[in-house]
Amino acid sequence: MNTRYVGVDIGKKKCNVAMMDQQGLIADEFTFTNNHQGIEWFSSKLSMDDRVVMESTGSVWTNLYNHLDSKHIPVILANPLKTKAIAWARIKSDEIDARILAHLLRSDLIAESYVPPQELREIRALIRHRLSIVKIRTMVKNKVHALIDKNGIETELSLFSKKGMEWLKSLRMESSLDRLMLDNYLEHLDSLQHQIKTVDQEILGKASQDEDVKLLLSLTGVSIYTALLLKSEIGDIKRFPNYKKLVSWSGLAPSMHQSGSVEYHGSITKQGSKMIRWIMVESARVAVNHDERLNAFYERIKQRRGDQKAIVATASKMLKIIWTMLSKRETYESRNEKSYERKLNSID
Hints:
Helix content is 57%, strand content 12%. It has 348 residues and is of the alpha/beta class. A five-stranded mixed beta sheet has the order 3-2-1-4-5. The chain has a two-stranded antiparallel ribbon with strand order 6-7. A hairpin with a 2-residue loop joins strand 6 (254-259) and strand 7. The longest helix is centred in the middle third of the chain and has 33 residues, at 118-150. Mean pLDDT is 90; it is low at 256-266.
């Protein structure tokens, strides 16, 4: 077997490649454009004996990874932070280029990032697509609020309820330009709401086919959207041998340093999945208002360390519960049966 170790430094428009042989010598170096034609050309130069490594930078790696994966060419996605640390320790360089990636791959020193199966990657993309639409909707709503405030208009109506929207559409304004802007914002909101409904239907369809999602729905504070997000980000729970690994991967574990025999715990590391940290904190906010067990835990921490730290601690505790539920294939023991049944009915 004549294995080559192929490092790919991915850019938005072009990619740099270094091919290294088994003796550590550079066999070839070249660039290709990061588009369909360029990726197809690059893959034609590879065989299934070759091993490829690239960094998980943004989302520009996705098309190349998917293409090589479909061709059954071994490809590794490198964790940027850990790979940089290893590169500095081994070869005194923190500039990760194609040559260094190939060298680290040949030496079996790549810190690999988890890449979920294609089906989960698609669900992850769907979830993040919905989040992006919701962010745009929030931005447009803020513009409407600003326009109403600018004109000194007050109302007790919830602006974006059915009655509130009717009121906004019929509102008379002194400035014709402001009225035009308001009409445009409202049309944009209608369009965004339609897009969210379409995406939600797709999410319901995915959720109804997933047994992990059905288990997760039993946990207080976890909606259908949250459950599918958790599944798409976590993937196979077996890759975490214990709950501490899951909490650490999410970035919700407290940082720690040691001086002699004394351990000091600080704020959370915030290294890992930003999506998991965000959704778990959001879920914890809901859970502490509807779950006696989690509320008691939250209140106990809050008295000593304040609201924000208590919420983060609750989010971490919920993640421990999630690990147990998925590992043991059990629903949440303190679940609200009526609420759980309602969630399940909504995806059937």
